[in-house]
Structures are given as structure tokens and as C-alpha cells.
């Protein structure tokens, strides 16, 4: 098969705009972090076993941890409200 010449290629401006809009809507943000070498090795090992790319896997782990933290705060708030209610009841 013959390789196309660079001068023969055209830029799909409309398609490029659509791709950029889709990327902007995805709400993904590119960051740089420092991570412990052992943790990264374990993450990549888990990634190889599951077939999920390690960056996506890291994002999933982070989401689950934050969701669990939110649930923990919610439970704590419920306990504190119940405690306040009981204190008022005992004081009355």
C-alpha cells in the first residue's frame, strides 16, 4: 500500500472542533502528580490483571474513596443530629 503524501492530507476542521468540544465537556483535567513507586507498581500490576488502563483505574479508586468519605460524613452528621435530639429530650 502506498503512503499518502503530506500535501495530499486535509484537515477536518469541523470534526476537530467537535472533538475539542466533546473533550471539554468530558470534564477530565490533565494533572501531574508525584506517587510512591511501590504504589504505582501495584497499580500497574492491578491494571495488567484487570485490563483497565492504570490512569482510569486510579481515577476509579479515587472516586470510590471520595464517595466513601462523603458517605462517612453523612453518617456522622446523622449521628450528631440524633445525639443533639436526644440531649434536648433528656434536658427537657
Structure notes:
This protein has about 90 residues and is mainly alpha-helical. It has helices at about 15-25, 35-50, 55-90. It has one domain. The protein has three helices and no strands. The protein is elongated.
Supply database-style keywords.
3 helices, 0% strand, mainly alpha, 92 residues, single chain
Layout of strands and helices, then pairs:
Layout (H helix, E strand, L loop, with lengths): L12 H13 L11 H14 L3 H38 L1
State Rg.
Answer: 25 Å
Low-confidence stretches: none
What's the β-strand tally?
0
Largest sheet: none
Shape: elongated
- What share of the residues lie within helices? over 70%
The average pLDDT value, as a whole number, equals 86
The SSE order reads: HHH
Work out the strand percent: under 5%
Count of domain modules: 1
* Number of contiguous helices: 3
- Counting helices, strands and paired strands, the structural category is mainly alpha
- Termini separation (Å)? 89 Å
Amino acid at each position: 500500500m502506498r503512503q499518502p503524501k503530506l500535501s495530499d492530507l486535509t484537515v477536518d476542521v469541523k470534526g476537530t472542533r467537535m472533538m475539542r468540544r466533546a473533550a471539554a465537556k468530558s470534564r477530565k483535567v490533565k494533572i501531574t502528580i508525584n506517587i510512591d513507586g511501590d504504589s504505582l507498581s501495584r497499580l500497574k500490576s492491578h491494571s495488567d490483571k484487570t485490563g483497565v488502563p492504570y490512569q482510569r483505574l486510579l481515577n476509579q479508586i479515587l472516586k470510590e474513596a471520595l464517595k466513601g468519605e462523603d458517605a462517612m460524613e453523612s453518617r456522622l452528621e446523622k449521628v450528631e443530629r440524633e445525639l443533639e435530639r436526644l440531649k434536648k429530650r433528656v434536658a427537657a
